């Protein structure tokens, strides 16, 4: 399952963003220094952060910003968990319940560990499925909240860029009567550069972060659903070979679907 390469794609995105900005400023020549304006950056970034803090609870903000670490980590592949699941099924088939319990206790994935223990305890299928689906739904709810934080920041950044533009224009208009061209030019620069900062932060920082976190969530949910299918097959008494073949097929179909989708998007 394509959980690998997350770190490389993140680093490639950062490098591309830095390269784009560097090229743009280099082409600007001696005027590149004019694109650095701490006051304009403070208006856009500070305003975005202030509005975001006002929009969410502290706990949501903390977990949202902590999720940034996931951008630089590869999600573990699902195949080792499938092999652990199949190993438990074999032990259950051999009526080695104590060894199966010991195997389950050693599983690092809490979702898989709980599901297998419930299946081993002969929990009714409907109850088992309901309990595990509830855990998946809570994961979606939690990670969707993290994604929403950065999507909100992506919406606020251009708005505060426009806010800075309006401030600069007001200052420029107030100086028109004085004839102070230096002051007029300074205010005009603030009016334009805040819009630039808002566009850059929204489209090269906040929205890409939200998109990457959303892709991670979709992949994690797909992984959990694969494991849930295996847990349910075990509870229904399917043998180890059937479970392994079924999960391998699901993973392969998922990989094929991802490749086909990427191919269609590349041709579009």
Descriptive notes:
The protein has about 270 residues and is mainly α. The chain has one domain. It has nine helices and no strands.
What's the short version?
The protein is mainly α and 268 residues long. Helix content is 82%, strand content 0%.
Q: Mean of residue pLDDT?
A: 84
Q: Hey, roughly how much beta strand do the residues contain?
A: under 5%
Q: How is the quaternary structure best described?
A: single chain
How do the SSEs run, as a string of H and E? HHHHHHHHH
Based on the model shown, name its key terms.
9 helices, mainly alpha, 268 residues, 0% strand
Helices and strands, with pairings:
Elements: H1 6-27, H2 38-55, H3 58-66, H4 79-93, H5 97-105, H6 110-120, H7 125-176, H8 181-235, H9 240-267
């Amino acid at each position: 399952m394509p959980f690998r390469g997350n770190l490389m794609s993140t680093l490639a995105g950062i490098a591309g963003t830095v390269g784009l900005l560097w090229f743009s400023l280099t082409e600007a020549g001696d005027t590149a220094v004019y694109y650095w304006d701490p006051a304009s950056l403070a208006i856009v970034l500070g305003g975005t952060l202030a509005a975001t803090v006002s929009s969410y609870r502290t706990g949501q903000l903390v977990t949202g910003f902590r999720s940034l670490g996931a951008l630089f980590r590869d999600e573990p592949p699902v195949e080792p968990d499938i092999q652990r699941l199949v190993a438990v099924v074999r032990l259950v088939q051999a009526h080695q319940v104590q060894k199966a319990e010991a195997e389950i206790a050693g599983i690092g994935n809490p979702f898989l560990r709980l599901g297998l223990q419930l299946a081993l305890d002969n929990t009714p299928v409907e109850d088992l499925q309901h309990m595990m689906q509830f855990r998946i739904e809570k994961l979606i709810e939690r990670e969707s909240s993290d994604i929403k934080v950065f999507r909100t920041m992506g919406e606020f950044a251009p708005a505060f860029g426009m806010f800075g533009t309006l401030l600069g224009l007001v200052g420029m208009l107030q100086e028109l009567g004085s004839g102070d061209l230096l002051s007029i030019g300074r205010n005009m620069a603030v009016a334009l550069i805040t819009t630039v900062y808002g566009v850059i932060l929204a489209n090269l920082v906040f929205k890409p972060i939200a998109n990457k976190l959303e892709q991670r969530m979709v992949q994690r949910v797909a992984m959990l659903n694969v494991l849930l299918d295996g847990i349910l097959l075990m509870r229904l008494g399917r043998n180890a070979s059937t479970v392994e073949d079924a999960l391998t097929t699901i993973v392969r179909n998922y990989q094929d679907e991802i490749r086909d989708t990427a191919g269609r998007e590349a041709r579009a």
